[in-house]
Structures are given as structure tokens and as C-alpha cells.
Design brief:
Blueprint: E1 2-3, E2 7-11, E3 18-22, E4 28-31, H1 33-40, H2 49-57, E5 61-62, H3 68-81, E6 85-91, H4 115-132, E7 136-142, H5 150-166, E8 170-177, H6 184-195, E9 199-206, H7 210-216, H8 226-238, E10 243-249, H9 257-266, E11 274-278, H10 284-287, H11 298-311, E12 334-337, E13 343-344
Parallel strand pairs: 6-7, 6-12, 7-8, 8-9, 9-10, 10-11
Antiparallel strand pairs: 1-5, 2-3, 3-4, 12-13
Helix pairs in contact: 4-5
Bound molecules: iron/sulfur cluster (SF4).
Length: 373
């Protein structure tokens, strides 16, 4: 017998207890110091038979012959092939009414999908839904700014929803918007979709308190967007449209985020979940940002922000990664489709030829994409 190499033991705050977490089996224990030290010092002999039995059942103690890397590989492959949903991130346009400093889509063709391409994308989505056979289907409307073309967005969602109903699939969608150009019709649509529980949430981004935010996230003529976005969030709240504020954090703005939190509370937006978008060197797009957070600084910064949010009784939209995939891009049943029908695995990589996979949905002269992700 031996201890799993995926055991993590760390002290609980304020007493002599410890947490044990196994990152392979996801077992969690709350331990006395004596037992925690036995694990940390690799002393199997100090553990009673009852506890050994319990630990063996939960992967804390394993057979000498066990190959945990192989087990991890198995779970990874399994989740990659059997992701619990079929997910499409659809960018109907790369166009946007804003001109954010850090936008990685600035240089891309801003026009929306043509009607012909729209139908082809819809067909592609339907085919892949049937191909993957998952019970759940999720559409993420992305951009550019999807509300530049609200009719197109609405039509797309309604058609996929109808298809899912017909084929007994559970449908939901999310929309990523800058929150500055949602007209009355689009608002009514979101309201209805929320009521029907098919809109999971609308995500709106904030880059810090007003001054900092407006300096980065502004219109093309440099006028700020902070007040408009806060107004949109208030309208969402009043209309029971579930919204999540993604607060971008980087090396320059993180200390000022508590000020933004206070402002949200002041505007009665304290019940809206917030999530942190960490600006780090993940993709080429992020690398253009001078203020990326270094990996070594991240735990300290996140701890500070989580503590602040909890002390202010704000809701956190946390995405614990208990799965075996780093993110949904690694699953076979997830697709990012851009306005030209090009396919990618990650929205942060779209628009660049080297990141495409397959021939795209409507390569000229061909019958379209038919391979596996
Ligand atoms: S709102 Fe989004 S798409 Fe529009 S300019 Fe800003 S980062 Fe780019």
C-alpha cells in the first residue's frame, strides 16, 4: 500500500485541524493533526486499520501496483468523449459598438453572418446535437457584440430551442454582452427567456470602478461605458433577467475591485453574482495585454478578492474545476463557430487561422464539416 500522490493536506484556519483533498478522486476529509501529519510524513504504520479501510475506498491509500497517471488518463479521455452537454459558442458577428483597449477582435471583419451562412450554421448545430446524443444543449452567444443583431440572435436561439424540444433535449443559452446596446425588443426577449428558464444568464463585463473601467472599456470615440452598463444591470434586475458581472482583474486594477464591489452594493446590485475574469497569459489575445497577472501572484490576489466579496456578502459565481478537463474546450462535443463559419475550440482563439480546426462549416465548394471535434 502507498499514499496517493494526488493527496493534498493543508491546515484549516483557526484550530489544529487539517483538510485532506484528493485531486484524483475528489475525496475531502477534515482531519486531526496526528492523522494529517502521518499522511504528510508518509507514515502508513501510524494509521489504524479502520481508517486505512476508509482511505482505500476513497483513493487516499492505494495499492503499490496502482498507476494513478493511467487512471487520470482514463478519466480525462472518458470526460473528453462523454461531456455532459453539446455546447456551441456562436459569434454572429465580430463587430462591436465599443473600442476596448484590449480587444483581441479589433482587426477582424465586423460584418454579421449572411442569411445563407446563418442557415448553414443552424444545420451544422442540429447535426452535431444529434451526433453527440447528449441530453443537454447549451448555446453561448458571443461576439463581437451579439446585441448589434438582436433579431438574428433571437431567431437563432428560438430555432435551436424548437429543435431541442422536438428531440427531447434540455436547452439553455447564455449571452455575453457589453451591456451598452440592448434595445427594448431584445430586453423583452431576454425577459421571456428568463421566465421560461432557458436563459442561464447574461454576462456583462466590468473592468473596475468608473475611472479605471472607462479608461479601458469605452466607445470608439473614447467616451466611457460604466454608467450605461450599471444602468443595464439595474434594468436586468428589475426585469428578473439573471445577469452575472464578470470583473476582469489584472495586475493594475485588482486592488481597486473592492471599490467597485461597494458601488454595486450601493446600486442595489449586491444580489447579482460576480465572477473574476483573470487576465493571464493564456492565449495570444491575452498576451497583448501589458497587465497580465503572473501565476505566482494569483493565489494571493484571488484570496484577497474572495475575502472582500464574502465580507461584503456578495454572491460569487465560482466555477470549481472538479472535472478532469481543464475547460470545456477539451471536450469533443464543444464548438466555437465564428461569423464566417470557421470552427475553433476556444472563443479566445477565434479569428486566427492557426487556431481553426476542420475545414469550417461552409468551405467553398465542399459539403461542409463532417469530422469529429
Ligand atoms: S466589448 Fe468586447 S468585443 Fe467589443 S470592443 Fe470591447 S472587448 Fe471587443
Amino acid at each position: 500500500m502507498k499514499f496517493s500522490k494526488y493527496n493534498l493536506v493543508f491546515p484549516a484556519k483557526g484550530n489544529c485541524k487539517y483538510y485532506l483533498f484528493n485531486t484524483l478522486t475528489h475525496s475531502i476529509y477534515y482531519l486531526d493533526k496526528e492523522l494529517a501529519l502521518a499522511i504528510m510524513n508518509n507514515q502508513l504504520g501510524a494509521i489504524t486499520p479502520n481508517i486505512i479501510k476508509e482511505f482505500k475506498e476513497n483513493g487516499i491509500i492505494i495499492k503499490d501496483s496502482a498507476n494513478e497517471a493511467k487512471i487520470l488518463g482514463y478519466f480525462y479521455q472518458k470526460q473528453k468523449k462523454q461531456f455532459d452537454k453539446t455546447q456551441f459558442m456562436i459569434s454572429l458577428t465580430y463587430g462591436c459598438n465599443l473600442g476596448c483597449d484590449y480587444c483581441f477582435e479589433k482587426d477582424l471583419e465586423p460584418l454579421p453572418m449572411t442569411r445563407i451562412d446563418f442557415s448553414k450554421v443552424l444545420n451544422f448545430v442540429k447535426k452535431r446535437i444529434l451526433f453527440h446524443k447528449n441530453k443537454k444543449v447549451e448555446i453561448h452567444l458571443f461576439g463581437g457584440e451579439p446585441f448589434l443583431y438582436p433579431e438574428l440572435a433571437k431567431e437563432f436561439i428560438e430555432k435551436v430551442n424548437r429543435f431541442c424540444n422536438k428531440h427531447n433535449k434540455k436547452f439553455s443559452f447564455l449571452v455575453y454582452t457589453n451591456g451598452t446596446c440592448i434595445n427594448k425588443k431584445a430586453l423583452d426577449w431576454l425577459k421571456k427567456a428568463s421566465k421560461k428558464h432557458i436563459l442561464k444568464y447574461a454576462q456583462v463585463t466590468l473592468d473596475g470602478p468608473k475611472l479605471l473601467h472607462d479608461a479601458r472599456r469605452h466607445h470608439k470615440n473614447n467616451t466611457g461605458t460604466f454608467d450605461k452598463i450599471i444602468d443595464t444591470l439595474i434594468i436586468f434586475r428589475k426585469n428578473n433577467i439573471k445577469a452575472v458581472a464578470r470583473i476582469n482583474i489584472d495586475a493594475k486594477n485588482w486592488k481597486s475591485i473592492p471599490k467597485l464591489m461597494n458601488h454595486l452594493i450601493l446600486k442595489k446590485l449586491g444580489s447579482m453574482p460576480i465572477g473574476f475574469g483573470i487576465i493571464r497569459e493564456m492565449t495570444e489575445g491575452c498576451k497583448n495585454n501589458k497587465n497580465v497577472i503572473k501565476q505566482k501572484d494569483l493565489p494571493r490576489i484571488l484570496k484577497f478578492l474572495y475575502k472582500q466579496a464574502i465580507s461584503k456578502k456578495l454572491k460569487l459565481e465560482i466555477d470549481p474545476r472538479f472535472g478532469y478537463l481543464y475547460c470545456s474546450a477539451f471536450a469533443e462535443s464543444t464548438y466555437v463557430v465564428d461569423p464566417q463559419g470557421k470552427l475553433y475550440k476556444c472563443a479566445g482563439l477565434q479569428g486566427r487561422k492557426e487556431n481553426q480546426f476542420g475545414a469550417g462549416i461552409f468551405p467553398s465548394g465542399s459539403g461542409g464539416y463532417s469530422g469529429r471535434a
